[in-house]
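Need a sequence for this fold. Nothing fancy.
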């Protein structure tokens, strides 16, 4: 069984960075998903894909995967680039664009 270890990204619907510090181990599906013949909903027989384990550090998640004998892939998070901005920059003298109101 193969697992994926990663830090979840920031929720695009909110500005906060909550729930992005923990590391998550989730299992990768091994069987193709198929539509249910009665309802038409997509599903599968692999129940391991419903399991998500949360760890405080990447090393804890890797140790768990090794202890359980799981093959795993570690996905490192992209570095966050913060551009400092100030409201006063809209009115500075050397502004490149024209200021219109």
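Here you go.
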């Amino acid at each position: 069984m193969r697992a994926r270890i990663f830090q979840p990204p920031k929720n695009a619907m909110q500005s906060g960075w909550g729930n992005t510090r923990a590391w998550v181990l989730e299992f990768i599906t091994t069987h193709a998903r198929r539509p249910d013949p009665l309802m038409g909903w997509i599903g599968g027989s692999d129940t391991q894909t419903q399991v998500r384990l949360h760890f405080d550090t990447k090393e804890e998640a890797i140790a768990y995967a090794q202890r359980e004998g799981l093959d795993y892939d570690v996905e490192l998070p992209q570095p966050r680039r913060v551009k400092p901005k100030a409201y006063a920059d809209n009115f500075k003298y050397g502004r490149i664009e024209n200021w219109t109101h």
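For context: The longest helix spans residues 58-68.
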